[in-house]
Amino acid sequence: MADVELYLIIGAGLLLALVLSEAIERLGEPGFLGEILTGVVFGPSLLMLVNPRQGTPFELFALLGGVLLFFDVGYEQIDLDDLLKAGRPALIIGLSGILLPFATGVALGFEFGYRLEASLYLGLILGVTSISIVVRTLMSLERLDTEYGRWILGASVVDDVIGLLSISLLPLFFVGGSTTATLETVGVALSFFLVAAVFYRFFLGRISGLLSRATEGQADFMGVMGLLFLFSYAAEAVRLSATIGALTIGLIISTDRRFEERDIRGSVEGIAYGIFIPLYFIFVGSNVNLRVLADLNPFIVVFTVVGLLSNFVAGYVGNILAGGKRELSIVFGVGLLPRSEAGVALVALAVAQGIVPNEILIAYLVMFVLSVFATPSLLKRAVDRADPRGGSKPGSRADSKTG
User: What is the pTM of this model?
Assistant: First the structure.
């Protein structure tokens, strides 16, 4: 992609996303669906200006948006103490969101005659949830900083960490590797959270103190952004996700009173929500290739319907097992529906490695298409029905949200 084409795609993409988002918002649906629709128009379905699997400069701009979105979620939208209190229910719901879809995917694989490795992949990819779709929807409804919003966020993180790590480990068994390599991969991934805890306990205050003595006017902003990208890099390096790293450092930074008073968010909000975050959802939309709908066969139909149903039931039952309010169970069921764009890339990689046939990639793409478009609208209706007055506490972070 030439530089001049990049400018054209970004400029035209932002303007089209603005028009579509405004139109969709006026129809009573979450406005960011317009950004996803723009990605569909620009992607392989129509104009083919953005190919999500070519590693283009546009993808880099878009992924910066994902990093900034999850930093904002951690820094401004969610309180770390409240999220930690949601640890047990989030773990229960997250494990439910992994185990039931995994069993469903493996059973479907065996039923349709796939080999063991392909069947395991089917189970694992059903457990990787798109956190970004759910988070952006709850933010637009001003329900992210509620008890159930924190439970859904925590459960989605659990799904992503376990799912992405498990998918990363699978090739070690079928492409080459050893028990030692497997243990090293798990250990390195877990070390990320240990390092984050050590940083929070021993280094955050020191860094804040050093920055307070800096003469550079933007020292706090530069320092925080540096930490953001280092944590994002570290999470990617241990085969997690840059967004997990961004969410982690955002939660940590938010606990420092001085950083909170400096209003770091004010320095990043305009450019994040005005440029990079819309580009991220345009990129998500570019993964939606409507042409796969022409390749439907019995396996793809069954996998899509049964797979999405297993995700819904996992969220519904998980909320009940966690002791949540029964009337919110549908919210949790819908919250675990959207499949992840990371899942698309991982399945494509598995096809390239010869672990799974191309038919499984097509099946996952069909599921991705349906879940990405259906979830925001369904989640909005589920939340409006179960929590019509809103669950934010007075004076909470959600109340002060401006994005």
Answer: 0.85
